Amino acid sequence: MRGKKTLATGLTLLFLLLAGCGSGNNGKDSGAAAGNTASSADISSGWDIGFGGEAAPMEPSADEQGTDSSVYQNAGAKLVRRAEFSIQTEQFDQTVQALDRLVSECGGYFETASVRGGSYRDASASRWGEYVVRVPAERYSDFFNSAGTLGYITESSESSEDVGERYYDAETRLKTQRTKQERLLALLEQADTMEDIISLENALGDVEYQIEQLSSTLNRYDALISYSTFTIYLQEVGKVVQEVGESSTLGQRMTAGFKASCEGFVRGAQELLVWMSYNLVVLVILIAAAAIGGWAGLRKYKKWKTEQSEKQEP
């Protein structure tokens, strides 16, 4: 009888502790809920729920002591690396094929890819492509340095984020939750009343939910750390033009301006010819109408001129 009371006392204390920890974490992202789960780590590491005696304090184990700065220094940084490129190209299809080969050579894959413009209804429109590429972290430099061969890079940026603190914090809390799960399973084997069994199973459900959330967080971090992310914006242009900088000489700037003016005139004439080819029938009708109108007007003018001459004669 005394053993059952002791077990009930231990269960009551454990449920109160779990309720205080679980209520702050349910429905939240495990990666961001460091404060709430940390309290559960302190509780579970500070007490040993025995089966035959009262709940007694115990020394926290090495895995349950929390995460201090020394842990991160010893384990090393956990870097999430990202980079972006804005690229212009005169040969859009060839550049896309080159990008596909580069991704394959680096052992990566396309996470997303989209192209807009250049449709059947607007054949003269330039195309825009946006690609999100995942490349193994060890091939980051290879892909970054080779991206310049795809076209003319107008803009590039890169960033890295050390998620080591959050990673090791989630890892430590996951160990704590698994230790708690083992203790609950041991208590469940000792339970002999339906009330205790139901309460333990509910507590196990909460702990398993926390384990799933923390495992998902670690898996997401592992994916971001092991594969770097590249975002590539690809623009199709008629001609790649490298602007002359302000530090260039006056002659260089004037030459570049004159060259751009000539190229603009030629490009405008070409666009006009293309427009005329698309609207040839309309242009023929307008020219014919203008010719008929001009001929009729000329005849009317000559007739009026003759009448005026006859009136002036004696």
Shape: elongated
Largest sheet: 5 strands, mixed
Which residue ranges are poorly predicted, with pLDDT under 50 across at least 5 consecutive positions?
1-6, 19-75
Beta-strand percent range: 15-25%
Helix content: 55-70%
Q: From the helix content, strand content and strand pairing, which structural class follows?
A: alpha+beta
Secondary-structure element series: HHEEHEHEEHEHHEHH
By oligomeric state, this entry counts as single chain
Mean pLDDT, rounded to whole units? 76
Counting DSSP H or I runs of 4 or more residues, the number of helices is 9
Task: Give, in spatial order, the strands making up the sheet with the most strands.
Answer: 4-5-7-3-6
Q: In whole angstroms, how far apart are the ends?
A: 150 Å
Q: Write down how many β-strands occur, each being a DSSP E stretch of 2 or more residues.
A: 7
Rg on CA atoms, Å: 38 Å
Protein name: DUF4349 domain-containing protein
Keywords: Membrane, Signal, Transmembrane, Transmembrane helix
Can you offer a commentary on this structure?
- It is a single chain.
- The chain has nine helices and seven strands.
- It is an alpha+beta fold and 314 residues long.
- The chain has a domain at 250-310.
- α1 (2-22) runs parallel beside α7 (194-226), α2 packs across α6 and α6 (164-190) packs antiparallel against α7 (194-226).
- The model is unreliable at 1-6 and 19-75 (pLDDT under 50).
- This is DUF4349 domain-containing protein.
- Residues 1-24 form the signal peptide.
- InterPro entries: DUF4349.
- It comes from Flintibacter hominis.
